[in-house]
Every structure is written in C-alpha cells, then in structure tokens.
Design goal:
The chain is mostly beta strands and 170 residues long. It has one domain. It has a four-stranded parallel sheet.
Length: 170
C-alpha cells in the first residue's frame, strides 16, 4: 500500500481484515507515510516463505495493526512497525516450528485452522470482534455499508469471538 507521501497517491482507509497468507515473499507492506489513516490490519495470519524478500509486516509509520499472527517457515521473521518491532494489541510472532502447524494441510491448499494442537490458542477466538464492515461509494454522493458475516468457506462468522485468518472454526 502507498502512504500519504507516495508520488502516485496514497491508499487511505485501507482495511486488511481476516486474511490468510502462506509461503509469501512479502507480507503486509505499506510505506511512504503509512500511518493509521492509511492502513488498518487485524485478524490476519501471515506465514512467510523461509527466504522472504521483506518482513511479514512493514509499516514505516504507526499503522493500525492488532490481533494478527506473523511467522516464517524455517527461520524467524522480520516485523517492522514504526521503524521498530513494536507489535499491536494481541498480535503474536510465532516460531518457525509453530508456523508450520497453524493450518490443516497447507501442502493440499487447505488453510482452515488446524485444531487440537498448540496453535489453536493463538488463532481460535483470538481476533478482534470489532465489526468487519466497510463503507463505500455507490455513486458520487451515495454510500453503502457491507458487513462480513461469513468466512471464505461460507461459514457464519463469528462463532463466539472472531478467529484469526480467513476461516472460522466451528
């Protein structure tokens, strides 16, 4: 994403909620003046490839980031927020061993949360229950609001408290 100082223009009001990324070379990246007016990221799981190009999270200023899980396969990741590694509320940085255990079967492209292992305490019922909704323009003057009520598999969300990532556990 582009911040307020980007020569091509900023992406203000970007909401990055309940996403799942696995084996990526770059996680969430926002620069050129990326503060809370530009990016709000919550309830995401980002597990990067072992030799990722950039960190799992990079914001050059203090973006609005909370309730996320970041990890890297095979090595410890890089997390930069506001020029350092300050993490948001309820954000967890997990070990390479634990990063490999988050999803049911990533080799088969099954990214629902694995149950019954040590990863469940960081992902199930650990998201922010703030409304997952966005307001958008339908014309020059008219707005509408869309509220997320189902996960990527079509299951109603939340079941209890919101889970991290794109899939809600029953």
């Amino acid at each position: 994403m582009r911040g307020a100082n980007a020569s091509w223009g900023a992406n203000p009001g970007t909401k990055f909620f309940n996403n799942t990324a696995f084996g990526v070379l770059t996680g969430i990246a926002c620069s050129d003046g990326c503060d809370a007016s530009i990016l709000e990221a919550r309830n995401n799981i980002v597990i990067a490839a072992q030799r990722a190009y950039k960190g799992e999270l990079f914001c050059d200023l203090l973006c609005d980031e909370s309730h996320n899980v970041f990890g890297r396969l095979g090595s410890w990741g890089q997390y930069q927020r506001n020029g350092g590694d300050t993490k948001g509320t309820n954000t967890r940085y997990i070990s390479p061993t634990d990063a490999a255990l988050v999803f049911a079967d990533p080799a088969a492209q099954k990214f629902d949360l694995r149950t019954g292992v040590t990863t469940t305490p960081w992902t199930k019922d650990m998201g922010s229950n703030a409304a997952l909704s966005i307001t958008y323009y339908t014309s020059d003057t008219t707005t509408a609001t869309y509220t997320v009520t189902k996960d990527l598999a079509g299951k109603t969300t939340p079941v209890g408290t919101v889970d991290m990532g794109a899939f809600e556990l029953p």
